[in-house]
Specification:
Blueprint: H1 2-28, H2 51-73, H3 79-101, H4 106-138
Helix pairs in contact: 1-2, 1-4, 2-3, 3-4
Length: 155
């Protein structure tokens, strides 16, 4: 299971880096030109600039991604659920983006695959955790043997 955890962290670090970079540029340059985003993509949407998208990206994938990475590294009990949630957030973000701009790009498909992969990795790790806990419950560790007999006086 260590491999699944490491792969999850690697993917999450990538998503965080891209999200933090993108959100920074969307917030500081709401025109999108610093990222090469054409302004016509916003035509027909309720958005007048990329700033709102940048803030959403910052919190949902950047900061939440950091929280998820920390929870995985510290092996906090709900880390597998957070991994699945991050994958779901990515998928929802991309699907909403596709619906809003009515145009698709390869990067959107890449992030959909990443989102689905995170959901699968989180599910795999969650199932493993459930199996281990069930095994411990059904077969508890034997009680430590007492060394009391060694200290008895023989007559």
């Amino acid at each position: 299971m260590k491999t699944a955890r490491q792969l999850s962290v690697a993917i999450l670090v990538f998503v965080c880096m891209v999200s933090l970079y993108g959100s920074y540029h969307m917030i500081t340059d709401p025109t999108g030109s610093s990222l090469g985003f054409p302004s016509y993509l916003l035509n027909g949407t309720f958005l007048s600039s990329y700033a709102i998208t940048g803030w959403i990206l910052l919190f949902t994938m950047g900061l939440f991604g950091i929280i998820t990475i920390i929870s995985v590294l510290k092996k906090i009990s709900i880390y597998s659920i957070l991994i699945m949630l991050q994958g779901l957030i990515i998928c929802i973000f991309v699907i909403v983006e596709i619906i809003l701009i009515s145009e698709t790009f390869i990067i959107q498909y890449v992030f959909l695959i990443i989102g689905i992969a995170l959901i699968g990795l989180g599910f795999l790790q969650n199932q493993r955790k459930i199996a281990v806990e069930s095994e411990k419950k059904n077969h508890p560790a034997p009680a430590p043997k007492s060394h009391h007999h060694k200290h008895r006086k023989h007559k």
